[in-house]
Amino acid sequence: MLDRRLLLALMACATALPFRSARALEMANFVAVNQKIAQQHIATRHATFAASCSGLSITLVAFTAGRAELYAARQSFHAAMDAWQAVQHIRFGPSQIDARQFRVQFWPDSRNRIGRQLGEILISEREDLISKPDALAQASIAIQGLPALERLLFEIDIAPGEYAGMLAAAIGDNLLRIAQDLEAEWAPGSAWSQGLYEPGSSSVAYPAPSQASAALLLSLVTQLNVIASAKLREPMGQSAERARPRLSESWRSERSIRNIAINLDALSDLFSGGDGHFANLLIQSGNETLAADLQERLRGCAQIMQGMPASLEVLATDLSLRIPALDVADVIDISRQAVEQQVAPALGLTLGFNSLDGD
Amino acid sequence: MATDRRSFLAMASASLSMASCPSWAAFNGSCVYGTWQDGEGRFHLGDIRGLTDIPLPGRGHDIAVSPNGDLAVVFARRPGRFLLTFNPATGEHDDPQWCPVDRHLFGHGVFSHDGAVLFVTENDFETGEGRIAVLDPRDRFRRIDDISSHGVGPHDLLGWPNSDLILVANGGIHTHPETGREKLNLSTMESSLVLLDPRDGNSISSAVLPDALQRLSLRHLDISSNGTVVVGGQWEGENGWPTPLVGVWDGSQPLTLVDAFSPANLAMAGYVGSVALNTAGTTIAATSPVSGVITLWDRESLQARGSTFLPDVCGLCADPDGPDFMVSTGLGMVHKLDGQTAHILESRSHTVDQRLWDNHLVGVA
Question: Which of residues 163-192 of B touch A (CB under 8 A)?
């Protein structure tokens, strides 16, 4: 159910918030937040993704053997996609290695590469992709991950014992391997995890703890931008008549809005979950109001999208939902600007000197 | 006034010139310059050892070094209008000079092979035409000519080895100072590499992109001594669509581009900020600040050789004294990277004095 009162409240507080940088933060403040985010937010969520991919892989193998229904395979897809959407905003480090982000989810596929390549494979029935464990990992990134699997489970009428079903199982296995690698590399005590909170440790990536904090805050900024533009405004189009819902992220499995709700929940957790994360840093720097307002906006946006239909197609054309959904996009944009223009300076952080302003 | 200032600076930098490039111990004696922003938001020019520190009137971008290495020029970043000359061995510098008010710079320039003239990319923003100003270094950089870049939004430019010809990357994007850095023509943009003869302004040859890559902006260049051009691009098209970001050109055949779907290319997230060849001309390096990664490529096969995660990396040049690469980051780090593997060999941190290193590094041999 759409909570109009909440939406109105979020839009009302969507003005430029004052901030002060009166109280300087200590290095220890940043170390503590980075460590909590690394261990509680990043590691936990990647462990959940690996566990859900394990469930997906087992279910798909059972489906090809005729021991599980298509419904069960689809449910396990949803569970894996839920877990992926909850870590999608962590785009650096292990997620960048070996094109993992692309291999898990090749999106947006604006030129239908997945459709063309999957079509060719289903016709040729390439044997190695379903018989050799590593073959799919070496194949085109377009057919390795969740969007290709989505087509097999929701678009093509697959059945046990057929090539398409076995390809689905191979994709499940491939996803599980990637998810396990991500889980291991982000696990507490791993080099990547420690690199975020132990300056000068195995990773020289972030010479100062505040810089790792800035990188985490930049993950929040980037994902807010992706949600408002690529996930919401582009498929919604200029008007209901000009909506292009097939540009949305998961229209075949009718869950593009569910993805956004999960993303926003994850960003809300990154900002103020656990025992406070960035909201806590803001409070320590004397910016209680800014912390509370942004926390309210992120939570509120997540809550409103949770109350919307899971598929974007309905939102795009039904004006009673379309207008509030675009209002949420506005609140997301304003929240992103608040992180860039108020939160970062309040915490004394520089967000992407080169990365946000290249030439 | 300028003379007083200059002589003062010459005295002030006397101790620095004692420690000029060849005697530097760290980074194996490498003499590398770049620009940075400090903790108060002011802009500077200096070397990676921290021996020279020249205040700039605005944000700097790239640096051109004369063939004999005794004169260098730093250019204002788009849409700035200043250029400032300095001696890389001593840190002595002149007062900034300014391009005409109906023009702005793109941040790049290059000396002719004999050092007699300096070429500077400019935007004639009312017509939208890319121009290359020809300046006389021996006469206070007086403007002696002005030729077309044969495209829109000229960015980096280089001299062709052992010739008078120059090569320019027309990024293809039209901007106007009234709209800041807003891109005004993405649907019709057309990027190109143009080899031109500055004596008559004629285009000798050019390379353009296939239709599918119409929104790829070719921006940064390096060149080997035998005339292999390396180019780095920035994708302005559909968000997230894989596009080849590194290519090579021999001056006549079509561009050869890396595999768009190779993991190293994908890791750069549609954006290359700097490219460089190692001194032997065998390995290409490309930095992406957007994803914080440097990638290495074999120049012949265009296969990826290695990559390293370096947050906010952008500045890049070949180590002038060895086979490796030097890189800088907006987090205040400078690293020497192995030219074969991209592994970090040596690092220097400027986090305490807060040097946010900007887009480019230049080695002085």
Answer: none
